[in-house]
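Researcher: Hi, I'm a grad student and pretty new to this. My advisor asked me to get structures for two proteins we've been looking at. I'm not sure of the right format, so I'll just paste the first sequence and hope you can take it from there.
Model: That works fine. Here's the first sequence with its C-alpha cells right after it:
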Amino acid sequence: MVFSVSYYFLTPGLFSCKFYVMGAQKYLTYFLNPLLNPLELLRTKRVLKVNPTVISGREEPEKTRLYVFDYDDKNVEHKELSSIKDCYQYIDTPAVSWINVDGLKKNDVESICAKYGVHNLIIEDILSQGQRAKTDEINSVLFSLMNMLYFNKKDSAVEVEQISIVLGKNFVISFQEDPVRDVFNPLREKLKVHNTKIRQNGADFLFYSLIDMVVDNYFIVMEQLGEKIEELEEDIVRHPNTRSLAKINLLRKEMIVLKRSIAPVRELVNGILKSESELIEDKTEKYFKDVYDHILQANDLAENYRDMMMNLHDLYLSNVNLKMNEVMKVMAVVTCLLAPATVIGGIFGMNFETVPLLHNKWGFFISVGLMLFIPLAMVRMFRNRGWF
C-alpha cells in the first residue's frame, strides 16, 4: 500500500492517466447500467441550466423572415416582406399592422426596434435566452415575453420557444425564434375573414389574441403530456420494470419545464391588467381577465400533473416493495416446507450406535414418508389460514 502511494506521487504522468481512467469509467457506466442514459442526463442539464445573465449563444439564421398583416374592418393586406426596410412603411398607417419576425438576427432586430421606438432594454430581452415571462411598458410601448410550448411525441419532451410581443400605437410586432412553427395559424385565418371580431378592433385586441393563442396551446401540450402520464400509470400498475422509474424521472423533468413556463404568465397577464396603459382600451380589459382565468386553470392543472407524478413514484415504490414481499413470502414458505426434511435427515444422520428405526427395514420409507407428509400438512395449514 505504501509502495503504491509513493509510486503514485513520484510519477507525475499518472495524474493524467488517472483523469483518462475516470473519464473512461464515466462512459463505461452507461453500458454497464442501462438505466443511465447519457441522453437523459443531457436533458437534465438542459432543463436545469437556465441563466438569463449569460450572453445568448443562439445561432443566428441566415435570413430573417418577415410577414405582415395590415388590416382594418374593410380591407386586409398580408404578404411576406423581402427586407427589414419594407416594414418601415407601416409605421404611420391608420390601419392595424402586425409584423411577425421569424428568426432572430441581432442586426435586424435592432434595426426594426429602433425604427419603431423600442427601448434598448426590451431589445436585450428579445435577444436573450432563458428569460422569465414578464411584461414591461417603456416609452409608450407595451412589451410581453413568454414561452410557446410544443410537445415532441417522439421524445416525450416539452419543447420551448421564446416569443416576444411588442404593442405600440396601431402596430404589434412579434419576434419568434423558430421560423418553421408557431401557434398563430388560426389567428391568421381569422384576419383574412371579413367582419371578424379581431378585424373590428384595434391593435390591443390583436395583442390579446396573440397571448390568448399561446395560453390556449398550453392546454393542448398538457393534454398530450397527460396521455403519457396515463400510459405510464397503466404500465406501472400492470407490469412495472426497471425502466419505469427512469420514465417517471423523465416526465418529472418535463413537468419542471411546463411549470417554469406557465407559472410566470399569471403575473404577466396580471401586470397588463394593472398597468393602466393607454394602449389597452377599456373594452379589451375583460378579454385579458378571461386570459387570466385560463392561465390560473392551466397553472392548477400543471400542479395536478406534478402531484400525479409524485403519486406514480410512490405507486412504483409500493409495487416494487409488494413484489419483493411476494418473493420473500415464497422463499419463506419454501424454507418452512424444507425444514422438516432437514431436521429428519439430520436426526437420522447422527453418528450414534443406537438410533430408533435405524436398522429397521422400513426405516428409510418411514423417514421419507414423514418428509413428505409433514410439508403437505403444513401447506394445508398455511392455506387454511390464508397465508398464500
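Researcher: Oh nice, that was easy. Here's the second one.
Model: And its structure:
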Amino acid sequence: MVGLGFRREFAEEMISGELITPDFIEFAPENWMNIGGYWKKMLHRVLEKYPVLCHGLSLSLGSPEEVDKTFLRYVKSFLEEYKVRIYSEHLSYSKCDNAHLYDLLPMPFRMDAALHMAARIQQVQDYLQRPLAMEIISYYTPVAPEMSEADFINEVVQRSGCQLLLDVNNIYVNAFNHQYDAKAFMAQLPLDKVAYIHMAGHEQVSPDMILDTHGHPIADPVYELFEWTIRQIRPVPVLLERDFNIPQMQDLQEELTRLKSICHQQWKHHELVA
C-alpha cells in the first residue's frame, strides 16, 4: 500500500479520485480534532474512501515535563472514533516549560535520554493500548552525544517495545549532512520493528548541506536508498509526504506510481498489509 499525506489544499481531488489515487491517507490528529462544520464533513467524506494512519506532532515525548494527559485523552478518543490503524510520533521534543517551539528538536544521544524517551513511550502506549511507531527525525547538529545514534535508537526501541516509522529521506539527509553511509546506518537499526515508511523530497542549499523540506519531488538517490531498504524488511505501508509547493495532481500521482512499482518489484513475493 502506498499512501499520501492528506492536505486541505487537495481534499476535493483526493475525494473524487479522478487525478490522484492513494491506497490510504495520513494526517496529524491535532490538525483535525474538535473541528466542526465544513471541514468535519470533508474529513468524514475522505475517511469513507480511504483507510487512515495518523502522524502526531505535539506529544513531545523527549520533553522534561510530564506528558500532557488532557491532550492524550483527546488523541485516544480521536484514534478510536476514526479507527486509525497506526499512530506515529517522533524521537524528538518540541516544547519545554510549556513553551512550544514548533519544530522537532533532536534528542541527545545519551543513555539517560534513551531511558527517558523509552519511559515516556511506554506511558503513552499503556494509555492508548497500542504501540507507537516512532520516527527517526532529520537533524542538523548532534547534541552532546555520548553514544551513536543507532545505539540510541536501539535502546529506545528495545526498552519501550515501540515500532519504527522509517523516513528514508530523513536518513539520506542525515547521512549526507553528517557524512556517514546511509545503508550502513540503516543496517544497524531494528528493521524488524518497522511499521511503515515515509518518503519525501529535500533541497540541497549548499555543497555540504541538505534541508529536509517535504516541498520537493523525491530525489533519485532517495529512491535508490528506498529500494535497497525495502529489500531488507517485510512489506509495510509506504507514505508520500508533500507539505508545500504542491504540484499538479498528475505529478504527485507519478510519484505514487513510481513508489508502487518499486514496492511491487521488491515485495512481489509477499502480501502487503496495513
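Researcher: Is there anything I should tell my advisor about the second?
Model: You could mention this: The mean pLDDT is 92.
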